[in-house]
Amino acid sequence: MVGVVTSEEVARLARERRRWEETTLAESLARQPERPARFATLSEAEVARLYTPEDLPGFDYLRDLGFPGEYPFTRGIHPTMYRGRLWTMRQFAGFGSAEDSNRRFHYLLAQGQTGLSVAFDMPTLMGYDSDHPRARGEVGREGVAVDSLLDMEILLRGLPLDRVTTSMTINAPANVLLAMYIVAAERAGFRWDQLGGTTQTDMLKEFIAQKEWIVPPRPSMRLIQDMLVFGTRHLPRWNVLSISGYHIREAGATAVQELAFTLADGIAYVQAGIEAGLDVDDFAPRLSFFFDCHSDFFEEIAKFRAARRMWARIMRERFRARHPRSWWLRFHTQTAGVSLTAQQPLNNIVRVALQALAAVLGGTQSLHTNSMDETYALPTEEAVTVALRTQQIIAYESGVTHTVDPLGGSYYVEALTNRMEDEAEAYIRKIDELGGMVRAVELGFPQREIAEASYRYQQQLERKERIIVGVNEFVVPEERPIPILRIDPEVERRQIERLRRVRAERDERRARAALDALARAAEGTGNTMEAVVECVRALCTLGEICDVFRAVYGEYREPAII
Amino acid sequence: MAASAVRILIAKPGLDGHDRGAKVVARALRDAGYEVIYTGLHQTPEMIVNAAIQEDVDAIGLSILSGAHMTLLPRVVELLRERGADDIVVFAGGIIPEEDIPALRAAGIREVFLPGTPLQSIVQWVATHVRPRGVAA
Question: How many angstroms separate the CA of residue B56 from the nearest CA in chain A?
Answer without folding.
Answer: 19
